[in-house]
Design a protein that fits this description.
The protein contains two helices and no strands. 79% of the residues lie in helices and 0% in strands. One of its GO terms (molecular function) is DNA-binding transcription factor activity.
Length: 57
């Protein structure tokens, strides 16, 4: 199940990367900082997918 969550998360960031980068860049004041924020967020969320519990189907 974690693999599907990671794939979903990767697709989410791929689809919305431009908007996320624009938003984060405005928050921190420059593009490089915005890119770092987006990448750090993606990595933190990917690390948490292992902690997500799913009920047995």
């Amino acid at each position: 199940m974690t693999g599907r969550v990671n794939n979903w998360l990767a697709n989410l960031f791929r689809w919305h990367h431009r908007d996320l980068l624009r938003y984060a860049s405005r928050l921190v004041g420059d593009r490089d900082g915005g890119e770092e924020v987006v990448q750090d967020t993606r990595l933190r969320l990917a690390g948490r997918t292992a902690q997500i519990g799913y009920p047995n189907a």
